[in-house]
């Protein structure tokens, strides 16, 4: 955008705030405004590695979980952003990271700055780290929506690929049993336009969508 080769983009932080701070453009909206508490990154490993190296698998996962817990604590946000700002990582000024990490959203246009936004990125709180199978169902449904997967795609693959069982074991082992959700499903999701996705009835969601590739 700085050299005029791009009109807009959809990408994670810190590039949105960097755009605003350099007065190149503005943030139209955040993805949290499209889908509050939406799933973001995922941690995946090859099944054969997991089967052959169960101890290493759990050690890696527990290290990630402990990092997520640390990153979610308000008192660690400044240090987290200072670490991320280094050349080893994303190599940008702390000022381009810190605001939105704390829930401060400056859009860069006439809208007022939002403080303590409910759309602040979460790493552990409110089940943010848990691999909900209902989210897997949404991704599969979206792949059917755009013709990437066939209409008769088997949703049973979710139980094979999603190892929520290992996540729960690790949570208990690091003293976070209370963080384990009561269900592998987060239930019905509601998007910005009022459209709802019920993981128990993905075909209803598909049928009601106006924009899709499938018939």
Describe this entry's structure for a reader.
This protein has 215 residues and is mainly alpha-helical. The chain has two domains: 1-129, D-Maltodextrin-Binding Protein, domain 2, CATH 3.40.190.10; 130-215, no CATH class. It is built from ten helices and two strands. It has helices at 15-21, 31-34, 47-52, 54-72, 77-84, 98-101, 133-145, 157-161, 164-173, 202-208; strands spanning 189-190, 196-197. A two-stranded antiparallel sheet has the order 1-2. α4 packs across α9 (164-173). The radius of gyration is 19 Å and the shape is globular.
What is the correct CATH architecture of the largest domain?
Answer: 3-Layer(aba) Sandwich
Note poorly predicted spans: none
Percent strand: under 5%
Global structural class? mainly alpha
| Topology order in helix (H) and strand (E) letters | HHHHHHHHHEEH
Give the tally of β-strands.
2
Globally, the shape reads globular
CATH third-tier fold name of the largest domain:
D-Maltodextrin-Binding Protein, domain 2
Summarize it.
The chain has ten helices and two strands, in the order αααααααααββα. It is an all-alpha fold. It has two domains: 1-129, D-Maltodextrin-Binding Protein, domain 2; 130-215, no CATH class.
Secondary structure blueprint with pairings:
Layout: H1 15-21, H2 31-34, H3 47-52, H4 54-72, H5 77-84, H6 98-101, H7 133-145, H8 157-161, H9 164-173, E1 189-190, E2 196-197, H10 202-208
Antiparallel strand pairs: 1-2
